[in-house]
């Protein structure tokens, strides 16, 4: 399966493609043929004997989408935050380690991935073990994440759960979450008006979803949300004894940046090895 996306406004800068292989052996072979330089994997596209262009390859292991800590049972996702601006090649474990060192009490991290390519979209859900850590994370708003090739600020916002109950009347379904630190409470519409009017907080803006699983909107800010992932699911059941990185990766996907003749790449470096072919390409 192959998809190429091109920004028509800056064709000479933003050209990249996603390549999804049937077998992880194909990706391992591709990575083996890459040249490692300055912390990056690169491969040269050729037309016969002529070098066309060196492109960067960014492999992604599906197992790196989710990270949870054993010894800390995941009883509820109530203390969840949304993380935006995460570099795409950052693993769930790496994000968990950063937040553990900065805030602490991490229980679970899940990266949002593209439905077609399963490649990270740059957002995550993080669950904390205590309200104190949850409040600290939201109060921080921004955290600096340093990777091998960039330093980037990631944004922290409240995460809006599906199916929450109003925490004032404890009867109605909560339509809103007030994201302000002095509130951070799920409310139905009547309770929202009552609570904020009594406290003189009518300037607060709610976060809400039109339906479960849809993007959540904070009036002036649109935040992408995704369903809560249950780490007990078989295909996501990666058990870790602590917050440490795992170097034994099963490579399943790769991303090729600034790719030009993608068929050449596949033919020369994959079919040559007599390995299972890719899915048919699609745009």
Topology (SSEs and partners):
Blueprint: E1 2-6, E2 15-20, H1 24-32, E3 35-37, E4 40-47, E5 50-60, E6 66-68, E7 80-84, H2 92-102, E8 106-113, E9 120-128, H3 131-140, E10 142-146, E11 151-158, E12 176-177, E13 186-187, H4 189-198, E14 207-208, E15 216-218, E16 221-223, E17 253-257, H5 262-269
Antiparallel strand pairs: 1-2, 2-17, 3-4, 4-5, 5-17, 6-8, 7-9, 7-11, 8-9, 10-11, 12-13, 12-14, 15-16
Please summarize what this structure is.
The chain is α+β, with helices and mostly antiparallel strands. The protein has helices at residues 24-32, 92-102, 131-140, 189-198, 262-269, and strands spanning 2-6, 15-20, 35-37, 40-47, 50-60, 66-68, 80-84, 106-113, 120-128, 142-146, 151-158, 176-177, 186-187, 207-208, 216-218, 221-223, 253-257. The chain is built from 5 helices and 17 strands.
């Amino acid at each position: 399966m192959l998809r190429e996306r091109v920004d028509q406004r800056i064709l000479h800068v933003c050209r990249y493609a996603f390549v999804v292989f049937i077998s992880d052996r194909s990706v391992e072979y591709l990575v083996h043929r890459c040249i490692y330089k300055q912390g990056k994997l690169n491969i040269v596209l050729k037309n016969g004997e002529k070098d066309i262009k060196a492109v960067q390859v960014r492999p992604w292991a599906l197992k790196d989408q989710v990270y949870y800590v054993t010894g800390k049972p995941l009883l509820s996702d109530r203390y969840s935050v949304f993380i935006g601006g995460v570099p795409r090649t950052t693993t769930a474990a790496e994000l968990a380690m950063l937040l553990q060192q900065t805030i602490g009490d991490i229980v679970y991290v899940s990266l949002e991935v593209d439905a077609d390519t399963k490649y990270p979209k740059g957002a995550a859900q993080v669950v904390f073990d205590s309200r104190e850590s949850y409040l600290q994370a939201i109060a921080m708003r921004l955290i600096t994440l340093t990777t091998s090739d960039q330093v980037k600020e990631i944004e922290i916002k409240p995460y809006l759960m599906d199916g929450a109950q109003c925490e004032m009347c404890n009867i109605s379904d909560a339509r809103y979450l007030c994201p302000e630190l002095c509130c951070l409470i799920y409310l139905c519409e009547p309770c929202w008006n009552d609570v904020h009017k009594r406290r003189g907080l009518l300037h607060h803006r709610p976060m809400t979803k039109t339906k479960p699983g849809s993007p959540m909107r904070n009036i002036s800010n649109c935040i992408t949300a995704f369903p809560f992932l249950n780490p007990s699911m078989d295909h996501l059941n990666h058990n870790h004894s602590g917050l440490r990185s795992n170097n034994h990766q099963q490579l399943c996907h790769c991303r090729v940046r600034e790719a030009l003749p993608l068929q050449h790449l596949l033919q020369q470096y994959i079919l040559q090895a007599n390995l299972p072919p890719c899915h048919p390409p699609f745009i």
